[in-house]
């Protein structure tokens, strides 16, 4: 039997980080559909993110993307976030939107371009120092499009060199989180294409380097929960970029495409001790909302993660262990499926009510009139776009 009060206590301690870019205009390469009231500044993105925390109670931090969220004074931005009831979280380094990075950033064959990329990564550590952020997230668009285009092995050497330089620049309480992605924008080779490559680099870099699993960055059919279990066992899982993947890197709402996969991932997190704050796993969303309203989509995403987590916490560990040890294949599977098939929505509504929150965050936010207010207030100025 699972202790429901322990499940509730664990759920109260949950913390999901929101991406600042989810609140900005975004789109596909075919069209960006603007929405009224979309933030014009990093401050307005943080204010919108604070709404998600207000109604869910479990989204207390906001990840920045530099230079998308460039401001003159980052300490002031962090203070602004605190006033809004949230804090600045991970700093995501963007070394993919400058013409100089056409052939790569830290793996570029041109040493001058590599130095420019490294300077940006150092500047991001400066942002962390100013905001008090602990994590630097590194995703490189680096790779090649054609066989022979560049020396694949030399690119690994350049990558290792840059990562070491970043590691040496980190403060004692800071981490570097290395994200992998199967393909895109490079289509022939990608310099960090999979968890094995990221893991191998992080292993050499030491304790301050860990791997980020972006759930959208795998080939169809990849068993992501196995990767999670493996990395956790090695204490090399630094965090998640959660989103849904129907086809490739869709960046749609987590839990939309495959809620069962999300449950299986969260089960391995719980099983491997990754839910314990001491393990330091950063649970982040990395999503864009191109056709749906952004703040409610973030609320829905947070709730989807919360529901999957509640189900994972409900797994009867004793019964599962007994079934596994006795080789009861169907019994073990049934224990897991019982938890997955539990409707946890009443439990979560009860939890919110006990904490003085509205039991239905989606409805409460819709009633608040916030979307109408920002549509009226935020006229004029240039809307901050995803990538702008
Ligand atoms: C790359 O596809 C990625 O997942 C990285 O995390 C980037 O920083 C992010 O998307 C931008 O949306
Ligand atoms: Mn990502
Ligand atoms: Mn991605």
Automatic annotation (TrEMBL):
Matches recorded under InterPro entries: L-rhamnose_isomerase, Rhamnose_iso-rel, Xyl_isomerase-like_sf
Source organism superkingdom: Bacteria
Key word Metal-binding present: yes
Keywords: Isomerase, Manganese, Metal-binding
GO molecular function, one term: L-rhamnose isomerase activity
Enzyme Commission code(s) on record: 5.3.1.14
Family annotation (PANTHER family): L-RHAMNOSE ISOMERASE
Protein name: L-rhamnose isomerase
Taxonomic placement: Bacteria, Bacillati, Actinomycetota, Actinomycetes, Streptosporangiales
